[in-house]
Amino acid sequence: MAAALSMQPRIISTFMGDRFLFSTTTQSLHQLFSYNLGRQRVSMQTSRTLSGLTNFLFNRRNLDEKKRKRLRPGKVSPYRPVPDHITRPPYVNSRQPPGIASGPEVHDEKGIECMRASGRLAAQVLEYAGTLVKPGVTTDEIDQAVHQMIIDNGAYPSPLGYGGFPKSVCTSVNECICHGIPDSRPLEDGDIINIDVTVYLNGYHGDTSTTFFCGDVDDEARNLVKVTKECLDKAISVCAPGVEYRKIGKTIHDHADKYRYGVVQQFVGHGVGRVFHADPVVLHYRNTDGGRMMLNQTFTIEPMLTIGSINPVMWNDDWTVVTQDGSLSAQFEHTILITQDGAEILTQC
Ligand SMILES: [Co+2]
User: Fold this and answer.
1) What CATH number does the domain located at 3-40+99-345 have?
2) Average pLDDT of 334-344?
3) What is the pTM of this model?
């Protein structure tokens, strides 16, 4: 699950321009985005009227997008209970809004073993969830299956109750960039869907996501998904102790540029371990941030690439984030451990 950049005021002022300069640490993500959304709506209307000819002349991609039906909210099913014997993360039922905790997640041998276990379980759940992706299956049914498998393994589904998130997994279809809430919408032939699984096992979170194909997916979408996966793989391959985090952003951005895909900036990778979202903030785009990777550290890398606009618009549910122009977005995520000679992917079966 991606952390939201707007939780980090330092970075907001550096990278997001004056729109966010008013923000303070006490302001919630939702407030920030609501404000942003108002501006986005205005700019969307203006650009719609002005850009018809421009699109026709210069941007066939956007024209193609218009054939696809825009994603609409479905019905969200009631809360799914978690058995009492399963340990909840501290943010569940807490009034404190979860942010990004300060301090990196660096582990001893025992901690590394726990991270391997939660990473493996997250990967197994994700693999199983992927087998359910078929036309006609609802994202709520995927949530049900994921929820059951996680609790059957003695773990807690980390998104459930995180900052009020109502479900156990994020399901982000087509133009949904991230944080889609599972609902009654049946998957359609040709959809792409990112399923983002995080489990909390023995006090440690493991976090991973993949974009799956539903039925017969066109080449344009397939290529976006392929390149997004390549971006993640390439980024992981440059990781090692002492390497600057910003090398991740450069690697991803350079590869995306080759295909003229956009890199979403407002949602970031993050330290993960005992805490769901911790330092460092892992930017997926070129940046000049400082900070270097440490031995035995765990964090996620989770690039989101788009065919068209990289601007996010948030739905009224305060979670679902879609591209402003309705063009496709894809994402892949792994939790990795920094080792002596590089990085170990923890979220593998
Ligand atoms: Co994540």
Assistant:
1) 3.90.230.10
2) 98
3) 0.86
